[in-house]
Amino acid sequence: AADDPIRLGQEPSLAFAPTTVSSIDLAGTLPRLWVYFLGVFGPNGPLPLHLTDYARERLRAHRDPTFSRFADVFHHRFLSLFYRAWADTQPTVSFDRPEEDRFAAYVGALFGLGMGSLRGRDSLADQVKLHFAGRLAAQSKSAENLEAMVAAYYDFPARVEQFVGQWMDLPADSLWHLGSGAPLGAGATLGSRVWDCQSKFRIVLGPLTYEQYQGLLPGTAGLGRLVALVRNFIGDELDWDVNLILRADATPPFRLGESGRLGWTTWLAGKPRRESRDEALFTPLHHAA
């Protein structure tokens, strides 16, 4: 209490409180704030009314605040605890004191961000994770939730294509050999790889402007944040890739001497394009910054 930047007290009054705050005094070493609620005085206080009348009469008629100031020793403690309990459940108040933000710890604990050692661990800001706490904490990791988060964070169209097929290489000890006891239809596989369509999805972003397209290319911070967002949602259990769609009218003409990334931002075309470009397809985990 000695370190508090303000002193709190109650105004002794017999009237029902018309407002919450009575007055504030900025004179002196510390500001003083007087309120009407949560004190020992008044019609709602625990003390008999004649003590409120006595404190009020001494303060106004005799300019003697001794009794009121003595009661304010307890009022300051009551009101300080009341404010702290209220602030712990208010994100706007806690945002002013990030080192003491207990509300963020409460919400973060729902999806694995409750401890301080778990914060700031990737390129996605913790405030973004807290904003999507309801979706990150959901037990069902649906494509709809991922679509909604990506679209809301980047503010452009996004969709998730499920069951994207891919070839998966088999480890050497899982290959079938002549003479082994693998039954047909159960353990016998011809070849060194199998086609799988249940462990990969694709995030399609766009149509995008040229600036948005550049901000999500391999090696950019924007792509790193996308990787962090997806990892916070589903972890590393599934494979996924990204398909960037560039608007047809956003394709820049290629000119010698200008900066460009071969294979990403350079196109040889003599006529204006009428369809969006969707050639940018890559696995972000191989290129994230």
UniProtKB/TrEMBL annotation:
Source organism, top-level taxon: Bacteria
InterPro entries: T6SS_TssG-like (IPR010732)
Protein name, as recorded: Type VI secretion system baseplate subunit TssG
Source organism per UniProt: Eiseniibacteriota bacterium
